[in-house]
Specification:
With 273 residues, this protein is an alpha+beta fold. It folds into 2 domains: 223 residues, Alpha-Beta Plaits (2-Layer Sandwich), CATH 3.30.70.20; 32 residues. 28% of the residues lie in helices and 16% in strands. It is built from 7 helices and 10 strands. The strands form 4 sheets. Strands 8-1-10-9 form a 4-stranded mixed sheet. A hairpin with a 5-residue loop joins strand 4 and strand 5. 36% of the residues are buried.
């Protein structure tokens, strides 16, 4: 749905999604700039990270869209879209807006909510800075602003969506690497694009949408080449709360063991007396 028009025709209640195609990204960072301009986010500075030609480094409280520079073995005359070899790729990263969101489950104040578009929205005016969402995000997206005291992340441009407009990053992308639309429609489009890439010899192309994990799928899907780890995407992200059952079992076992030890100690002390 991205392109010249800014009106999506999407109504509140329709589940939306991003589809980021790394094979079309040219690394221009227009999405980063558009995100900052629309949301009034401060600049990240120009510190040299040493990680390729990337000064923003990662997603954070002041970077809600981040174009990653993914370098492979560079062979002269072979570009990132070549079927023979992956040499240089870019990929625009963003909050995944998980179907089962660890950040939302962990938030004690109700700052994080599910919107009518299916995305996960963080309300800064309700955030108390506890950072539970930070440690509960399986993708490392949410970050606390130490100067401000609150956590921040991508809003999925919910304000623009309510006005029938597409998110700023998708609107600004010159190659339509970032597509925006209805979730079910983009899932189909992703399969069509994948088939096209593989027919051109890019057999390592795949769709990143971890529906097989406790995350149950994401609303920011990716088309990548090679392994997810190359793009800093965990191959099997898990929501931390799935470990609660085992944790409570362990705690109960330890409690019973301690009570048993105390009772036994009194019994043996009583016999000695």
């Amino acid at each position: 749905m991205s392109g010249a028009t800014d009106h999506t025709g999407i109504q509140p209640g329709e589940v939306t999604s991003f589809l980021t195609d790394s094979t079309l990204c040219i690394g221009c960072k227009a999405c980063e700039v558009a995100c900052k301009e629309w949301n009034g986010i401060s600049a990240d500075g120009y510190d040299f990270t040493g990680w390729s030609y990337d000064n923003t480094a990662a997603l954070g409280h002041s970077t809600w869209r981040h174009v990653k520079f993914v370098e492979g073995e560079i062979t002269p005359g072979i570009g990132g879209n070549s079927a023979q070899q992956l040499s240089w790729e870019f990929s625009s990263d963003v909050c995944k807006h998980c179907e089962v969101a660890g950040c939302l489950e962990a938030c004690p104040t109700g700052s994080l909510v599910r919107t009518e578009f299916g995305s996960v929205f963080l309300q800064p005016d309700i955030c108390n800075g506890c950072s539970y969402c930070v440690i509960s995000c399986p993708f490392g997206v949410v970050q606390k602003n130490e100067d401000d005291g609150r956590a921040f992340k991508c809003t999925f441009c919910t304000d623009r969506q309510k006005a029938g407009m597409m998110p700023a990053c998708a609107k600004a992308c010159p190659t339509e690497s970032i597509k925006f639309g209805r979730l079910d429609e983009l899932k189909v489009e992703a399969q069509v694009r994948l088939a096209t890439l593989q027919s051109r010899g890019m057999t390592d192309a795949q769709i990143y949408d971890p529906t097989h994990t406790s995350v149950k799928g994401i609303h920011s899907m990716f088309i990548i080449r090679g392994e997810p780890e190359t793009y800093n995407l965990p191959p099997r992200p898990e929501v931390p709360t799935i470990y609660l059952k085992d944790a409570w079992k362990s705690a109960a076992f330890e409690a019973v063991a301690m009570v048993g030890a105390v009772v036994a100690s009194f019994f043996f002390l009583g016999r000695k007396g």
